[in-house]
Amino acid sequence: MKSLILFLCLAQLWGCHSAPQGLGLAYRELNCDDPETEQAAQVAMDYINAHRLRGYKHVLNQIDKVKVWSRRPMGEVFELELDTLETTCHVLDPTPVANCTVRHFMDHAVEGDCDFRVLKQDGQFVVLFAKCDSSPDSAEDVIKICPDCPLLGPVNDTKVVHAVEAALAAFNAQSNGSYYQLLEVSRAQFMPLPPSTKVEFAVVATDCVAKDVTDPTKCNVPAEKQYGFCKARITEKAGGEDVSVTCTVFQTQPVVPQPRSDDINVAVDPPAPAPTLADPPVPALVGGPMVVAAPQPPPVHRVHYDLRHAFSGVVSMESTSGEAFHPVKPPVLTGPGPVVVGPGPVVVGPGPVLTGPGPVVVGPGSAAPVVSPCPGRVRHFKI
């Protein structure tokens, strides 16, 4: 009995030192398709699309893992691993993501992988931590299913650059309104038959009238920006090329007053660069102390905007000291008495059943809890 008490004390002391500040010693596992899990995951997806800087909106495809940690003095933290899929809606497109089409795998789909920690307190969810990256389906997999399907190409390829310039020039030539400048090249694919280049790109209106422009360098982007999104195809033919382009122009974006430094408490490290034509304005981050993780510049030869480079995530600061949340299970302590485990969901040992404020010890014959089924259902398709 003395050895049992000793092991219990050691386990509790170890747990107190190893548990993240402000969080309980144990987590509970939910079904990945549990309504509460899906609610937290949807908040995470809304966060992704609200903080995309470039590229396309994403939708939830599958919840891989979920753990729910108690948080002192109140609330719970949902630790989530999510799989996402790219849609055909550009990040500047105001269309609700629920109405956006998921890009088909034969159109060389892109999958995202995200880690989130979402705080639930008083029935409200707030993102504490977010980290994402994404990658296109492998060319081999696309060709295996659809040998004639076009593959993604580098957006700085000379053919792509030429296709975008030709398409934008054709659009401005047909315009009776503003002159548009290139904002970003979002996507490019090469078609073998007939030889052609498909491009998708974002544009922004300037203060010039398209039919009057003689020197585009003198055109400026007004404070109230109007964005557009274009799809074009340049087809090679004997003696020239055919240019086909369609553009959708979105409503003008009003100027959002920037909050004063004494209005909100947001720590920024490093300082976010001022928005440029290549970087649309980012919504203000509000909701508690956090550090904005500035996205890294995308690779020059990229074929898509990786979420790692095009998503402005956050790193949690769970205490005033800035200690991040890193949950870790303690080691198992063994000896002549029952086996004792700290902050884990299950503790099993050969001794009697003991209950109390400390770790739970389960004796022989007790049923082990059923592990919640994860990963959850696939909503669209797996890459």
Overall geometry: globular
Order of helices and strands: HEHEEEEHEHEEEEEHE
Rg (CA only): 26 Å
Quaternary assembly: single chain
Summed up, the helix count is 5
The first-level CATH class name of the largest domain:
Alpha Beta
Specify the biggest β-sheet: 5 strands, antiparallel
How many discrete domains? 2
The stretches of 5 or more residues where confidence is low (pLDDT under 50) are 14-20, 261-294, 317-363
Provide the helix percentage.
10-25%
CATH topology-level fold name of the largest domain: Nuclear Transport Factor 2, Chain: A
Nearest-integer average pLDDT: 78
Structural class: alpha+beta
How are the strands ordered across the major sheet?
A: 1-2-3-4-5
- Between the first and last Cα atoms, what is the distance in angstroms? 55 Å
Domain Cystatin fetuin-A-type: 27-133, 144-255
Subcellular location: Secreted
Protein name: Alpha-2-HS-glycoprotein
Organism: Orycteropus afer afer
